[in-house]
Amino acid sequence: MSHHRQQRVASLIKKLVSELLQKEIKDPRIGFVSVTDVEVSGDLRHAKVFVSILDGDKEETMEALQSAEGFVRTEIGNEIRLRHTPEVIFRYDDSIEKGARIFEILEDINQDETDEE
């Protein structure tokens, strides 16, 4: 399987899942969720969807997303023509939180240096 095809399928899945989260999935446990990345296996049978949760309880949101995996897989099968529709697995991605924390630390350091001058 070509790496280029994997990337194309991952990009399509990322776009589709983002739209589903915004417009179709109406679970009240899901707050503001952003799809940060999608990794597709070489045989296109598995897709890991990495999400960042910016609003709401993380555990509750992940439970809601996991319960929606079947629906998401069905929608992917309807929208993207593949021999096998990939299994969808949601994974929590804390990179945005870590980035925000690093930014805060840098701002504090910068402020301390400004105060010393």
From TrEMBL:
Keyword Membrane: no
Domain of life: Bacteria
Keywords per UniProt: Cytoplasm, Ribosome biogenesis
Entry keyword Cytoplasm: yes
Subcellular location, record wording: Cytoplasm
Known function: One of several proteins that assist in the late maturation steps of the functional core of the 30S ribosomal subunit. Associates with free 30S ribosomal subunits (but not with 30S subunits that are part of 70S ribosomes or polysomes). Required for efficient processing of 16S rRNA. May interact with the 5'-terminal helix region of 16S rRNA.
Protein name: Ribosome-binding factor A
Gene name, Swiss-Prot/TrEMBL: rbfA
